[in-house]
Design brief:
This protein is of the alpha+beta class. It contains 4 helices and 6 strands, in the order αββααββαββ. It has helices spanning 2-22, 68-76, 80-84, 120-137, and strands at residues 46-51, 54-59, 97-99, 104-108, 149-153, 158-162. A hairpin with a 2-residue loop joins strand 1 and strand 2 (54-59). Helix 2 packs across helix 4. The longest helix is centred in the first third of the chain and has 21 residues, at 2-22.
Length: 169
């Protein structure tokens, strides 16, 4: 008869668990709308700065550019609020210009340094800022920043093409 004594105990435990679950205070609700689904990267212009040892993109919804050089101008004119947030600009360029269309862009800056290991973060700032600018300028064509390939030309050698994602890890 030993098996018979376990049955009432098991039933009692099951009833207690059911009562505990039912009495937890959660009340039924109707369907709750969670809003629009996430759409991925924003389409706003983004400028890349350095914080510590990593790049950080800053959305600039108030800014407008007509060519990729405009994004580099915004980068060089680092606003006071960026420094207050610990963001710095490590890019140092002399004369420069950009060329390319669509998914490819080249920054030309004779005499610039792009090949030293210490150039990784400034190069990342350039690549990510230019890729984002190219995407921003061609948003009607749905060019995503990850699709843009950026080359850096110091007048003697061309480095890249790079993708922004290579500098974000």
């Amino acid at each position: 008869m030993r098996g018979g004594t376990n049955r009432p105990r098991t039933a009692a435990v099951a009833v207690l668990l059911a009562l505990a679950a039912a009495g937890c205070g959660v009340r039924p609700t109707g369907v709750v709308d969670g809003g629009e689904p996430a759409k991925g990267l924003t389409k706003d212009l983004r400028i890349y700065y350095v914080r510590g040892s990593a790049l950080q993109g800053v959305t600039r919804p108030d800014a407008s550019i007509e060519e990729p050089n405009g994004a580099l101008k915004l980068l060089s004119d680092t606003p006071d609020w960026a420094a207050e947030r610990g963001l710095v600009n490590l890019v140092r360029l002399g004369p420069y210009w950009t060329s390319g269309t669509g998914h490819r862009i080249t920054l030309h800056s004779p005499g610039a340094s792009f090949d030293s290991p210490s150039d990784r973060l400034p190069n990342g700032q350039l690549v990510c800022t230019l890729a984002r600018a190219q995407s921003f300028l061609h948003r009607d064509e749905s060019i995503r920043p990850d699709d843009v390939r950026v080359s850096l030309d110091d007048g003697e050698r061309t480095y890249g093409p790079y993708q922004c994602s290579q500098f974000l890890t």
